[in-house]
Amino acid sequence: MVITVSLAQRLFGLGSVYGKTIRDSRRATLLVAGFLALFAVVAGAATAVAFDTPGSRREVAMLATALPAIFQGLLGRPIGLETLGGIIEWRYAPLFLLLMPLWSILALSSTLATEAKNGSLDLVVSTPLTRRRIALEKLAGHVAVVVLAMAVLALATWLVGIVFETLPGDAIALDAALAYAALVGVTTLATGGLALALASLLGRGPAVAITGGVMTFMYFVNGFRSSVNVFETLSPLSWYRWTYDHVPLAGLVDWASLVPLALAFVVFAGIGVVAFERRDLGSVVPIRLPRTPRPLLGLGGPFGRSLSEQLNGTVAWGLGIGLYAAVIVSTGSAFAESIRNVPAIDALLRAIFPTIDYSTVAGLLQLVFVEFGLIMFGFVAASTVAGWASEETQGRLEMVLSAPLSRVAWVLRGGLGVHLAIVLAAALVAACIGLATVGLGEDPLTPMAGTFVVALYGAAWAGVGMAVGGLVRPSLAPPVVVALTVGTFLLALLAPAFDLPEWVGDLALSSHYGKPLVGDWDPVGIVASLALAAGGLVLGAWGMRRRDVQG
Amino acid sequence: MPAVIRTEELTKFYGSHRGIVDVDLEVQEGEIFGFLGPNGAGKTTTLRTLLDLIRPTRGRAWVFDIETTVDPVAIHRRIGYIPGEFALYDGLTGGQTVEYFANLRGGVDRAYQASLIERFDLDPTRRYKEYSKGNKQKVGLVIALQHQPELLMLDEPTSGLDPLIQQSFFELVREARTEGRTVFLSSHILSEVERTCDRAAIIREGRLARVDRVEALRDLAHHQVELRFSGPIPAAEFESLPGVSHVTADQHVLRMRVSGPITPVVRAAARFELLDFVSREPTLEETFLAEYGRESVTVNDRGL
User: Fold this and answer.
1) Which of A8, A371, A419, B226 is the most exposed place for a label (fewest CB within 10 A)?
2) Does A118 touch chain B (CB under 8 A)?
3) Structural domain range at position B237
4) Is the residue at B56 inside a domain?
């Protein structure tokens, strides 16, 4: 009997390349759509609570235009700030426009390149399907799930306007929500298309790195074009500039600006498909990078090896976060001046943060960097824990443990490497802050020491991640760390926004560090973090003794 | 001779999925022991249980008289292992990878390590990720062999190697035996077991089907007999003979499988005008297939 393929299997299942792509993306799609919906609600709630009077809306509008250019460049276009939608798009749209493309970058860079590298694509290509069709079906599958996620974003944004309508004009029209989701979606796909094109030529790793770098650079080119001359010259190349007049939640809609972005996606994706069609399967143009110096390879044992494997990522994280902090430090005096020019905001800040002198570098960092720093160190932890777990998930551990090395020793030594990598990232961030602070003639030691306290947040979740990895399975460790990082961030945001009992907000570990960057350290958070970091490691070692090693 | 590996009713289930069931096995010091079975039969599960990488659901195992779950590190100190599938560090060169594992073990003779690299014709300066499958396998073999362990536990060790390197590998294995070391070699390639091993076990669907000397396994099986007649084929004369099965006739050629003594077939054949008589000793592969062709597994012979 001939096997027949149902339409359902073709659309969602193993009946076609397209169906399998959708099937393989279901978890990621649920996660992204859930995150988008949740974040839209959190952003709406936080905005509605913080700016619930016409006066507060006017103040935020004044602040937005008075902020130094360096800050304005990091935020959205400051228009329509008298409405809920306008504030949401000003404060949070950049986050969506930088985070969502990461999904497409990771998905489209791997959809062909990783499968080609693993060899499974050889089998797919050996079926009577043309390469072009395979590539197009995979691409169509990704486009479909992005459209689905954006539909969820549009719906959530529209509902936010209904639920959190506080002042006249707060309601968000459905067509505005759709236009906003379209902006995020097309930006996501265009960026992912570039990753697909590059992955077909260079392989996945370089494609992710280059596309991520290009995306960030293009964002800054648009954001800082008024303060950096060369950026003004380059800005026509930035797709964030193309859509500058499309701010639908603030009432400014420019559908035509999305057309070039959509065309860019078609061109990039076309290059990727044609390259896949014409080039040898799996062949890439090698990019020769300098080899790690021998003393840094960590060949002496699991501790050094673990640290060495993390080194590139750690340095990248440390320098990235550190440079961002240094940029903030460098704007210190301009920021203080701007705030002083808006007495209402000055008074508001002094009422909310009476002990912080934001005219100092440390105060400024405590005000605008600490939350970002906490989240980033959570991601550093997720990244290093993923590296630690890869020893087992990628099948190396079996050989490592066939040496006379106990499982406990492997967990403890490798785990110490993870913690030291986090400390190293913190040291780089602290060094960047220190250098920038010294340049302004201020005390560098207080914010530098505070940086290590902020990094404890990452160490704590890394400890929990390694406990989960040891007790349950290693592949679970990185998602748990990400979930705890994001979950804590959302909890800290949601608890006051929804007027939840104080103890709910206190569940967030990030609420217990005091004001570390101005030298006000809360021992509760520090001790809890150290306990989680060390205890998690020990628990992971104990768990590892009990379970089977994954082969 | 003392047993280097010993298992008693060793059983492993992955949830409801069968790994191995009631495996009783003894491997003697100084022998090359083949562990044969098709994919999914339980070879890798057995090896990983012996190394304490996974824990038995039931039963026990000892390596060097050390119970595997009690002190695995003491066992690992004396073994060399290559998994059936593995990945190593993409960023390290082959030489650095080998060095790392030498450091983890300690006491590796650098000259011997270099000689292995030379014998396997491995370029140690290339990054692991740049190696072909065969070269990656060579790195694994050097790691397993470089410390001259008392017991080699090799899971499909020749996978991806070209015939010349396979030959070098089997020379090394035989050298190990000459030096009194023990080799436990899991494979589904019967010819390599036939060529190299002293004894072999056949595992099927998680259960040991047979353990015996390689020659005995071969002899115990059957002969393939082919008779070419000048006239009509008297098939009925042969079908009823003891030990004869699978009788097929094709033009003037009669083929049959004969288990046990072949004398009755020779006597019956002598009564007819024959053009040719071929009796072929079965290969281990045929033995293997015959074993798996049976409906049930009945033999659990230590075959010492």
Assistant:
1) A8
2) no
3) 223-281
4) yes
